[in-house]
Amino acid sequence: MPQVRVVAEDGEEFGVMDTRDAIRVARDKGMDLVEVAPNAEPPVCKIIDFGRFQYLAKKKANEAKKKQVVIVVKEVKFRPGTDEHDYSYRMKHARQWLQEGDKVKATIWFRGREMTHRELGARILDKLEKDLADISEVEMRPRMEGNQMFIFFGPKRHKGGAKSERPAAPQTAAPQKDGGGEAGQPAPAAADEKSPA
């Protein structure tokens, strides 16, 4: 490329220059000439400290990675004839994983003649769905694929988290001894203040 558009680190434009002249200007300033827009006509180059540029780019990537949430899908396997104790053991593990924020895939494996009794597997998955309903929501309904039936659960999302915090403040100011009233309803003392005496 014979010519490039040169921009300084602070945004000052040097205009279109010969490539060798642009490199010379960058070296005079003790910096590097870095191509930032190769598809432009003419290509755009910036006079910057390349080591610092790489460091900042790496730091920004690490910051983005820290904010990234990794969701793990854990699997619980059942058979159509799974016993009650085995079921409860696996259900407790699924509950624990959902409370930790992971997703759960529950799978029923069918072998041979068990394929004719798919309703047994569906019954187990329905029971599991009811047992985990308080902490999870179904992301994918029970489905057959080959010789297995599966369902996906995800942790329950709390909608309106900011709204639920507002009513909590008055309740802490005037604690109730009987523990009556639901979250989001005013404390009985606040209702007495509004009525004329």
Termini separation = 88 Å
Shape: rod-shaped
Strands across the major sheet, in which order?
Answer: 2-1-4-3
The CATH class name of one domain reads Alpha Beta
What name is given to the CATH topology of one domain?
Translation Initiation Factor IF3
Question: If you average the pLDDT, what whole number results?
Answer: 81
Number of alpha- plus pi-helical segments: 6
| Major β-sheet annotation | 4 strands, mixed
List the defining traits of the structure above.
single chain, 197 residues, alpha/beta, Ubiquitin-like (UB roll), Translation Initiation Factor IF3, four-stranded mixed β-sheet, 6 helices, 8 strands, 27% strand, disordered C terminus
Characterization of the model:
By secondary structure, the protein is of the alpha/beta class. Among the domains are: 3-50, Roll (Ubiquitin-like (UB roll)); 73-155, Translation initiation factor 3 (IF-3), C-terminal domain (Translation Initiation Factor IF3), CATH 3.30.110. The protein contains 6 helices and 8 strands; from the N terminus they run ββαββαβαβαββαα. It has helices at residues 19-28, 50-67, 84-99, 118-131, 161-173, 188-194; strands at 3-8, 13-18, 32-37, 44-48, 73-78, 103-109, 136-145, 148-155. The chain has a 4-stranded mixed beta sheet. A 4-stranded mixed beta sheet has the order 5-6-8-7, with helices on one face. It is rod-shaped.
